[in-house]
Amino acid sequence: MPTGARIEFVRLTEVPLPVVMAMLNEPRNARHMPLSAEFSEELAAHWVQGKDGQWALHGYGPWAILVDGEFAGWGGFQHEENGADFALVLLPEQWGRGAEITRVALDRGFDELGLDEVIIALPFTRNPTRVVARFGFVPDGEVSYCGSSFRQYRLSRDVWTAVKVARFKANP
């Protein structure tokens, strides 16, 4: 997939609810999301408000992601007991943009939001170790959310900075 797309992050409340609801109910995404459910309009509205409410409580939260002005999915940093958890869920036609979007989001998390560390929790249906290592994430045990187990990985601001410097030296 070509790079150089215009990636924007906006509040989830700025995207029409039916668009968000369609993404939440996308069956190809649900197979990797053990906590997902069938979203009615009421449940989707509650979900959007809950995600958006994290901004007021914690100073960060998930965004709606736009690629060249079109809704591509949601992602960002969710407050969890053990840290700022990076999540990214894209529409299937945008799956090839995950790395590009992740780089932009991590830059914003560390540079603009002032996060010192970021965690990710990925279900056991995925084998992400090599992919997340490219960003500098290291294994950090397992966590459980709502009775489901996840692999956890952690990334510090310093490691992210080193990864970016190394990438620039390799591709000036």
Strand order within the widest sheet?
1-2-3-4
CATH-level-4 superfamily name? Gcn5-related N-acetyltransferase (GNAT)
Cα distance, first to last residue? 21 Å
Output the radius of gyration. 16 Å
Question: Which topology does CATH recognise?
Answer: Aminopeptidase
Derived structural class: alpha+beta
Domains (count): 1
Number of strands: 7
- Main sheet characteristics: 4 strands, antiparallel
Form type: globular
CATH C-level category? Alpha Beta
Uncertain runs: none
- The percentage helix is 25-40%
Quaternary state reads: single chain
The average pLDDT is 88
| SSE string | EHHHEEEHEHEEH
What does this structure look like?
The protein contains six helices and seven strands, in the order E-H-H-H-E-E-E-H-E-H-E-E-H. With 172 residues, the protein is an alpha+beta fold. It has one domain (7-170): Gcn5-related N-acetyltransferase (GNAT) (Aminopeptidase, 3-Layer(aba) Sandwich). The strands form two sheets. The chain has a four-stranded antiparallel sheet with strand order 1-2-3-4, with helices on both faces. The chain has a three-stranded antiparallel sheet with strand order 5-7-6. The mean pLDDT is 88. Residues 7-166 form the N-acetyltransferase domain. Keywords: Acyltransferase, Transferase. GO terms for molecular function: acyltransferase activity. It comes from Actinokineospora soli.
What does the secondary structure layout of this molecule look like, with pairings?
Elements: E1 7-10, H1 17-24, H2 27-30, H3 41-58, E2 62-67, E3 70-80, E4 83-90, H4 98-112, E5 117-123, H5 129-134, E6 138-145, E7 148-156, H6 157-170
Antiparallel strand pairs: 1-2, 2-3, 3-4, 5-7, 6-7
